């Protein structure tokens, strides 16, 4: 059977190993598995959200409000924009897909950092678009500008992951705005803000002002998610904010009822619990300092992170072996060998979980 030729060049996205798989493969008790590979919120989600999901379970047989008016209204208030500036996706991944199908094709290309979120390249493959990457693994805007000017006629979308997954580094907002000002208006610039809550908390210079972004630059799109700081990874709710004209075009690609009734309710309630978000952010960065101290003590290189994870880079140790040995102990981390790095990415966990990671990691290094 013949399939679309674009599929031949697509590699599957490698998600973090699920707890169930580790239990089956290594015989580790379910309660002993520590999952720190997928950047999920170690505190879970807000208690208010949990109660709302239980109360809403009786409506599981009903389709959600497809206008998603209440969620859009809350997001519009948060970012000081209009509801017409917002589209909701099944995770922010789906809004990447919307943008790709709206702007890219086999005669165009996208531009990304040397090491960044893998789904940009995968979705580009869906439509047969080329992918240009900077030589630097992190976001080097001088290299972005050079590549853009060289391939301006081809490049239809530029993706800036701010902060960057899987590395954790983050551009200053001012530098981002300066860069966008040099880009033609027909090139869509997508700001992936999946970890913006963390970056903004740590350093206000990293904060992307969404209202300013879309008002000053009509060719921009900001993406956010409820999967990280809000702890709703299992609910799959993301969104994009852009000009009304861009959102109107993207909406033509959205299928009806693309998130669930329970997901919609969870996201609406999550936006009202700022205390939970503050607790999440404070835990994250107080614990991250311990990971930095551990790295310095043991001579491990690390990337200064503005996210809810930290990347350890090894010189004379094999990161894959370390990752596999920890897996046998029930500790799931992210091996970055597929990104061409001898490194592991570790989600910042709760204090007791992090102590366990340090104890087992110390044995291996």
UniProtKB/TrEMBL annotation:
SUPFAM superfamilies: PLP-dependent transferases. Its EC number is 2.6.1.9. Residues 32-356 form the Aminotransferase class I/classII large domain. CDD domains: AAT_like (cd00609). InterPro entries: Aminotrans_II_pyridoxalP_BS (IPR001917), Aminotransferase_I/II_large (IPR004839), HisP_aminotrans (IPR005861), HistidinolP_aminotransfase (IPR050106), PyrdxlP-dep_Trfase (IPR015424), PyrdxlP-dep_Trfase_major (IPR015421), PyrdxlP-dep_Trfase_small (IPR015422). It catalyses: L-histidinol phosphate + 2-oxoglutarate = 3-(imidazol-4-yl)-2-oxopropyl phosphate + L-glutamate. Pfam families: Aminotran_1_2 (PF00155). Keywords: Amino-acid biosynthesis, Aminotransferase, Histidine biosynthesis, Pyridoxal phosphate, Transferase. It comes from the Bacteria. The modification N6-(pyridoxal phosphate)lysine is found at residue 228. One of its GO terms (biological process) is L-histidine biosynthetic process. Pathway: Amino-acid biosynthesis; L-histidine biosynthesis; L-histidine from 5-phospho-alpha-D-ribose 1-diphosphate: step 7/9. Its cofactor is pyridoxal 5'-phosphate. GO terms for molecular function: histidinol-phosphate transaminase activity; pyridoxal phosphate binding. Belongs to the class-II pyridoxal-phosphate-dependent aminotransferase family. Histidinol-phosphate aminotransferase subfamily. Homodimer. This is Histidinol-phosphate aminotransferase. It comes from Campylobacter sputorum subsp. sputorum. The lineage of its organism: Bacteria, Pseudomonadati, Campylobacterota, Epsilonproteobacteria, Campylobacterales. The gene is hisC.
